[in-house]
Recover the amino acids of this structure.
């Protein structure tokens, strides 16, 4: 057992996915974890999973971690600060400035409070979805402020490092504007695209492939939770969406221009030979937009936070037990490291398409080796 940086005990308030995962990760390091939740059933389930123990009157936690919905986070923080006057308190809500402001307005002792936010999660919720390794390698923001000292806040840093996350320091405002861009606006955009499917013909939906699944995956998130998150971070999210709306208006205008009779005539003239007519601006608009998307994707950190692009190889995998495991094992035997993997089933066929990401210099070697082993390469 790896020893914890925390002296403990640690009190976790709210044993849903994040709270239970935090508790399991700390228990794996031998930390005494106290569990609290509005639902006694959730506490019982988390205890049965080995996440910690029930609270007692004599508890004196070193650290309190509040893991409750955003609309009650501030009030719970104030309550915990009052109940445990020697404890440092943090929370894991996905917005930080409104919560800090609410704690100050309620008279909470912010010399012992600092907000934080782990950028990790799963599609499932509740204590049974908890995982001790949920935060490994994931960013975890600490939103410091002038009222708390570095020495006091170090307990939160120790928590993050204990759980294997990557500590990122930001102000509350910086955090909220950042997550508006990388999390909250994407949630809205994904949801709006998914709404187009509600009234779509069955024949169209049946054609859905990886592109649509990528865009709409997060649209399956909990609406009640996201109403709270978006409401709490409304201004930064609206600012991002206004920029997207402006870009979308440009694309729509370009597509309308492309569909206009004048555009068709210009296209025919271009095909017949050199033209002295001015360049059609809709082409430039679309090209500029698509190129900008390429540039943006290139900035998304990949494995280990590196800004590195990988080569893709698509392998056909029979829909049978053990086939995907065999593919990965044989990749290892060829000395090629898997950088990323996406699996998609082919509609109406008993095969899956495994899209494998590897280093560019390995793709030719791997293609030849897998083909020699009998794998069918689809692209």
């Amino acid at each position: 057992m790896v020893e914890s940086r925390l002296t403990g005990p640690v009190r976790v308030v709210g044993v849903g996915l994040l709270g239970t995962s935090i508790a399991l990760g700390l228990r794996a390091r031998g930390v005494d974890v106290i569990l609290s939740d509005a639902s006694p059933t959730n506490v019982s389930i988390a205890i049965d999973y080995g996440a910690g123990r029930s609270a007692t009157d004599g508890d004196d936690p070193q650290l309190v971690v509040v893991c409750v919905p955003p609309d009650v986070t501030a009030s719970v923080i104030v309550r915990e600060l009052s109940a445990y006057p020697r404890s440092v308190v943090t929370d894991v809500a996905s917005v930080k400035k409104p919560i800090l402001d609410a704690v100050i307005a309620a008279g909470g002792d912010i010399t012992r409070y600092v907000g934080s936010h782990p950028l990790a999660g799963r599609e499932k919720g509740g204590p049974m979805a908890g995982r001790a390794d949920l935060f490994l390698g994931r960013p975890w923001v600490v939103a410091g402020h002038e009222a708390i000292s570095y020495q006091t806040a170090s307990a939160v840093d120790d928590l993050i490092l204990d759980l294997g996350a990557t500590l990122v320091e930001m102000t509350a405002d910086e955090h909220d504007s950042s997550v508006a861009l990388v999390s909250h606006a994407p949630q809205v955009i994904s949801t709006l695209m998914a709404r187009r499917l509600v009234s779509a013909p069955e024949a169209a939906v049946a054609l859905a492939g990886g592109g649509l699944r990528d865009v709409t995956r997060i649209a399956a998130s909990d609406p009640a939770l996201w109403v709270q998150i978006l409401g709490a971070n409304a201004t930064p999210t609206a600012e991002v969406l206004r920029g997207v709306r402006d870009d979308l208006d440009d694309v729509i205008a370009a597509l309308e221009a492309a569909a206009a009779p004048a555009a068709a005539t210009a296209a025919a003239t271009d095909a017949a030979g050199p033209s002295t007519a001015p360049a059609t601006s809709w082409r430039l608009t679309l090209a500029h937009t698509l190129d900008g998307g390429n540039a943006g994707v290139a900035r998304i950190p990949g494995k280990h936070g590196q800004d590195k692009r990988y080569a893709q190889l698509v392998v056909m995998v029979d829909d049978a037990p053990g086939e995907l495991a065999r593919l990965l094992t044989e990749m290892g035997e060829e000395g090629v490291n898997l950088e990323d993997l996406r699996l998609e089933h082919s509609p109406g066929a008993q095969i899956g398409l495994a899209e494998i990401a590897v280093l560019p210099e390995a793709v030719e070697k791997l293609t030849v080796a897998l083909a020699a082993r009998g794998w069918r390469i689809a692209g």
